[in-house]
Amino acid sequence: QVQLQESGPGLVKPSQTLSLTCTVSGGSITTNHYYWSWIRQPPGKGLEWIGLIGYSGSTYYRSSLTSRTSISRDTSKNQFTLQLSSVTPEDTAVYYCVKNSLGGFDYWGQGTQVTVSS
């Protein structure tokens, strides 16, 4: 059973960089055909896919966020990290780390609230 746990600050100031880490247990982030996404849900809005890092380390980002997004990984810790730069209050959301495979988004972290405010 794969488990994911998000960690990081709950409050970020405007113009700063949001940084969240997802720790994975019960499975390796380098397992073939596993992909690891970040998804967020702003208040009162639907889910928004931010980007992913694949089992080989390849990354893919939402086109509208590409210039501000970076996803990396630490295979020794079985973690992957989201960095979102130049944040504004519109980046306030619950952020989820998610495992996806050929079957879709199959395992989710519990989510972590991030508020952008001075």
Secondary-structure element order, N to C? EEEEEEEEEEE
Largest sheet: 7 strands, mixed
What is the helix content?
under 10%
Spans where pLDDT lies below 50 across 5 or more residues = none
Main structural class: mainly beta
Number of strands: 11
Distance between the ends:
39 Å
Please give the count of helices.
0
Protein traits:
53% strand; 11 strands; seven-stranded mixed sheet; globular; mainly beta; four-stranded antiparallel sheet; 118 residues
Write the layout of secondary structure elements.
Elements: E1 3-7, E2 11-12, E3 18-25, E4 35-41, E5 48-54, E6 59-61, E7 69-74, E8 79-84, E9 93-101, E10 104-108, E11 112-116
Parallel strand pairs: 2-11
Antiparallel strand pairs: 1-3, 3-8, 4-5, 4-9, 5-6, 7-8, 9-10, 9-11
Characterize the structure shown.
By secondary structure, this protein is mainly beta. 0% of the residues lie in helices and 53% in strands. The protein has strands at residues 3-7, 11-12, 18-25, 35-41, 48-54, 59-61, 69-74, 79-84, 93-101, 104-108, 112-116. Strands 2, 4, 5, 6, 9, 10 and 11 form a seven-stranded mixed sheet that branches.
Summarize the structure.
The protein is mainly beta. It is built from no helices and 11 strands.
